[in-house]
Write a structure and sequence with these properties.
Blueprint (H helix, E strand, L loop, with lengths): L4 H13 E3 L13 E3 L2 E3 L3 E3 L12 H12 L3 E3 L4 H9 L4 E5 L5 H14 L3 E5 L12 E2 L2 E2 L5 H11 L3 E6 L2 H10 L3 E4 L12 H12 L5 E3 L6 H9 L4 E4 L11 H21 L13 E3 L3
Parallel strand pairs: 4-13, 5-6, 6-7, 7-10, 10-11, 11-12, 12-13
Antiparallel strand pairs: 1-14, 2-3, 8-9
C-alpha cells in the first residue's frame, strides 16, 4: 500500500516554516482580482482538478463547479464522463479540463476536442499519473496510462487551440520540456503525495520560475488550507493556487458552503495583503517571506 502522509506532512511543515514581515506604512485596501488568459476573476483561489466527487456528495462534481461560479473563481476538473463535463460547464464556471495521460493518444485528442467544443477555457494533462507504485504504467479505473514524450505533448498543445496546461510539474527539467512543447501554464504539484518524500510544491516553485521566467503562469497545488497559505504561494511567484481536499468535506452542505469557504480564504488573503503593503496581486513581493529552519 502506498503511503502519502509523509509527503503531505512535509508539505504542511514547509508552509508553516515560512514567516512574513509586516509593512503598514503607505499600505492601502487591496484587491484580489486576477486576470488569466484574458479573463478576470474575483480571486486567485481556484478549485483543484478533482474527480469522482459523487463519492463525497450527491452530484458532487456539479456542486463543486457551482461553488466556483458563485465565488468568481477558476474551476478545474479531472476525470469524468463527457456528460458530466457538459453539466459542469453548464453551471457557468469557467473550467479547465485536466486529462489523464491515456495510453491511447486518440483518446487524449478526443477528450481535448470535446472539452474545447463544450466551452472549457483551457485544457491540460496531469503527467504524474503515468506510472504505478511498482514501476509499471498506471491503470486508473480500468483505463491504461502511459508516460508522454515532449513530442507527444507538443501534439496535444497544437491540437487544443486553447491554453494547454501541464499538471504535476515538480522539477525544472520538466518545466523546460513543457516550455519546449508550447504549454501555456504549469501546475506545481505532487498529486497529494503520489511519491513519498516528494519536495513540497512551494519549495520547487522558485527553481521552476527561474526556468519559465514569467513567460507562462505557474500555479501551486497540494495542501493549501488558508488565505495565509495562498499568500505565501503568491508572494513566491505563483499566479494562483488550487484548493481541493480542504474543500471536499464541505460539499455535503452544498455549493454555498464551498463558495463561502473560498470567499473566506480570499478575505484571509486580502487581510495579509493589507498588512504587508501589497495593493494587488501583481505587486506581490517575495522579500516579505522569511524561512525558519525545519
Amino acid at each position: 500500500m502506498q503511503l502519502t502522509s509523509n509527503s503531505d506532512k512535509i508539505t504542511r511543515d514547509y508552509y508553516d516554516s515560512l514567516l512574513i514581515e509586516t509593512r503598514y506604512l503607505g499600505a492601502v485596501i487591496p484587491t484580489t482580482e486576477m486576470t488569466l488568459f484574458g479573463e478576470t476573476f474575483r480571486t486567485p483561489v481556484m478549485t483543484a482538478a478533482l474527480s469522482h466527487l459523487h463519492n463525497t456528495a450527491q452530484n458532487g462534481m456539479t456542486v463543486y463547479a457551482q461553488a466556483a461560479a458563485q465565488s468568481g473563481a477558476v474551476h478545474w476538473v479531472g476525470m469524468g464522463s463527457d456528460e458530466e463535463l457538459e453539466e459542469i460547464v453548464a453551471t457557468g464556471a469557467r473550467t479547465i479540463k485536466i486529462i489523464k495521460p491515456h495510453a491511447d493518444n486518440r483518446e487524449v485528442l478526443r477528450k481535448i476536442e470535446h472539452a474545447v467544443r463544450v466551452g472549457c477555457m483551457a485544457v491540460g494533462m496531469d503527467i504524474d499519473h503515468a506510472f504505478n507504485s511498482e514501476g509499471g504504467y498506471d491503470n486508473v479505473f480500468g483505463l491504461p496510462m502511459k508516460a508522454k514524450s515532449t513530442e507527444e505533448l507538443t501534439e496535444f498543445v497544437q491540437a487544443a487551440g486553447v491554453p494547454f496546461i501541464v499538471k504535476g510539474v515538480l522539477s525544472p527539467r520538466d518545466a523546460e520540456k513543457c516550455l519546449k512543447a508550447g504549454c501555456a501554464g504549469m501546475v506545481v504539484s505532487h498529486h497529494h503525495g503520489m511519491v513519498q518524500y516528494a519536495i513540497p510544491p512551494l519549495m520547487a516553485l522558485p527553481d521552476i520560475l527561474s526556468v519559465t521566467g514569467g513567460s507562462v503562469p505557474v500555479f501551486v497545488d497540494c495542501g493549501i488550507e488558508s488565505g495565509m497559505d495562498v499568500y505565501k504561494c503568491l508572494a513566491l511567484g505563483a499566479k494562483a493556487v488550487s484548493v481541493g481536499r480542504h474543500l471536499m468535506p464541505l460539499l455535503k452542505d452544498g455549493a454555498e458552503a464551498v463558495s463561502q469557504r473560498i470567499n473566506e480564504m480570499t478575505a484571509e488573503l486580502a487581510g495579509v495583503m493589507a498588512r504587508t503593503g501589497v495593493s494587488s496581486l501583481d505587486k506581490m513581493d517575495p522579500t516579505v517571506i522569511h524561512r525558519r529552519a525545519f
